[in-house]
Amino acid sequence: MISPLSPYRLGKAREVFNIFNVFNSLSWNLLVGSIITLLALRLGASSTYIGTLSALLYVSFFFMPLGKLLARWFKVVNIFSIAYTMRALGMLPVVFAPVAAYLGHHDTALGLTMLGVAIFHVMRGIGIVGNNPILSNLSAGPDRGSFLTQVQIVNSATGMFSGFAIALILGKEPPLFLYSIIMTAGIICGITSGVLIRKVPEPPISGKSEKVSLPAMFREALSEPSIKRFLGILLIVALTSGVSRTFLVVYAREVFFQDDGMILLYGVFGGLGNLLIGMLIKFLVDRIGAKPLFILCVMLGLITMIPIVFFPSSAIGNLTAVTLFFSFLFFMLNLGFLGSEGIAQTYFMGLIPSEKMLDMGILYFLVFGIAGASGSLLAGLLLDMLAFFGLSPFVSFKILYAILIAVVAIAIHLQRKLTPLGALSFTEAVKVMFSYRDLQAISLLDRLNKAQDYHKEEQLLGELKNAPSQLAIDGILARARSPRLVTRQESIRALERLDALSTDAETALTNDIINNPFTTAYISARILGKHGCTAAIPLLRELIASTDYMLAGESMIALAKLQDKEFRPQIEQIILDTQNPRLKIMGSEALGIYGAPDSLHTLLEILRRHSGAGADGTADPQPYLRDEVVLAMSAIIGTQSLFYPVLVRFTADPSLAPALAMDQAESAFEYCNTSIGSKKTRAKDQLAHLKKQAETIQAAVSSLVHDKDGAPLSRWIQELPAETAQTVFSETLLHTETTSHTHLYLLIVHWAAQQLRRWTKKLKE
């Protein structure tokens, strides 16, 4: 077995193959593209002849077993090279076909054309046995779909530009000798491609592989439901693709009387369609999978054929309408059906194990050949038969394409049952295609894969963090294993913004927590808590005692978000015992998230221990700890969002504390007075009690903030309807240190005012 290619050798091999691909595509378009159909029509060929000529393209696949036989003794690359050189030389008879026609021997000219095309495709069939193994070898790695689609893009781009050049050369009614010149150029390009392919490394499939008969290959394939289903769909798609695109040239020529140059110009639009779908598939295939793109391409092909069936006869003479019509048809049919052929091969390579690629690759092309050959022959016979019964070409083609539409509809129905191979569902894939965020993420991932500089990696990961997409998970996880700390940090932070984590992402974050304390573990702990990963609870409990205080703190918060209520008492004890201010802050935040009223006692204890002067007589060195604790308390009593602006104003200007407290009391009184007023209610006693409370709240608060006396407000709170924090706050106000703890008394006043509002709303209802 030949060793896999190193990254450097793989890159060089791909470069050589891309150059080969250019010359190979040029040779194809100059020799057997639409130009050969146009030449045959100029020589007076019938629809049956055109169908037979088209069928030869697919008959070539029946000679692949001969190539496989040769592969037992010779290298696959050498077989490929010699066969592709010989196929180009095999077109020499076609070079002389225009000469025979010029001398008046039209039947001889048609015979030479058929002979040259037959030799071309027979030799191609022998050589193409190496196509799938070589492509499979060169497409190794996570960018398999992208590389295979790049091959298609090179083909279509070369075809588009060469088609445009040929259209300009041929013009409206070209002399036949121009075809001989074009064919000669195609032969030269073909020989060049045959020489270039020799420089591609031999794929890891030796020619001494086990001999497998053709019937055995079919039996093995048909025994696998997934392969059997795919080959059935491939049969339909290949048949429809070959017939629809081949006879589109005949349709333009026989029904709309378009000249050679114009038809080749339409072919440029076809090349553009092929190029566009190739670029789209290359962009998406590695992210959403081959299956949904396969379905989409076939659907586009079906939709494109519908206008042919309904095109009105009255518009045949309208030059503008006809030009736009055929530009659309060539563009969309190539976009749909050539796209489906390309993505079908990508899907097939993902379906088949690499060790079976040579045998199954032959089977793939045999099915392709059976479909294309039979379809082309039957379509040609159908058109000639309809003409024999007196139907016009216009009507005959409507019947042909109506049949093709029905056949494609069957293929789409069957495609739903294809094995996904890790692809998104069709619905999800369509959503991705219309999601700017997902498309932006795919673009960023592609740029990230090409980034060679770690600064660029950091920049792109930062952008990915701001454009969260589930499609980015695999790419982000790959960077999370970077040897550079900053890159790992940015990668893990990008995961935090996702709506959900995959199983692989959860596993990676769990491993990061275990293996990377003091670096990125604390970020991973935070993400697991945020995304509700309950499986991480046992590990997070253990990490509460970690010497990495950031990890310990984030583990507390994560457990709170996961609502691990049984472990809350341990968290309370830890934040009471620790001397680390950051750990106390994070523990307080965790208690706020839990929202358990019993935790108010723990938080109050922290405030008592850290109020007033420090042990050395200096001012408290931890002001932010007090803020965080008070905010956690406000979260427990359910007023954090309303209390936070009050606390912000106070920290900006502490002298505003008395005014802020009185504002809370006054606004609550006015709300109560305005809402109730002279309102009549059955609960007269409650209403009277409420009014009394409203009238006395300002005096109670004034005693606290101006006289440092918390007793009046404590008694006022005891008169409220029973609430969870009522006992805690009323008792707290009786302690002298509370009146000096401005943060705390602001919270209590705020809570009291909110309770008065809630009571008012309840009676108002």
Please summarize what this structure is:
With 765 residues, the chain is mainly α.
What is the percentage of strand-forming residues?
under 5%
* Sheet/helix structural class: mainly alpha
Give the oligomeric state of the chains in this entry, treating copies of one chain as homo and distinct chains as hetero: single chain
Q: How many DSSP H or I helices?
A: 38
What is the rounded Rg?
Answer: 39 Å
Task: Give the uncertain stretches in residue-range form.
Answer: 613-621
Instruction: Report the end-to-end length measured between terminal Cα atoms.
Output: 82 Å
Average pLDDT: 82
Helix content estimate: over 70%
Which sheet architecture does the biggest sheet show?
Answer: none
The number of distinct β-strands equals 0
Q: Rough shape?
A: elongated
How does this structure look, described?
The model is unreliable at 613-621 (pLDDT under 50). With 765 residues, this protein is mainly alpha-helical. The chain has helices at residues 7-31, 34-42, 47-59, 64-70, 76-89, 92-95, 97-102, 106-127, 131-138, 144-170, 177-196, 214-223, 225-254, 260-288, 290-310, 319-351, 357-388, 393-415, 426-433, 436-450, 454-466, 473-479, 485-496, 503-515, 521-530, 537-543, 549-561, 568-577, 581-594, 599-609, 623-636, 640-652, 657-676, 684-707, 711-718, 726-732, 736-740, 742-764. Helix 28 (568-577) packs antiparallel against helix 29, helix 31 runs antiparallel to helix 32 and helix 31 runs parallel beside helix 38. It is elongated and about 120 Å long.
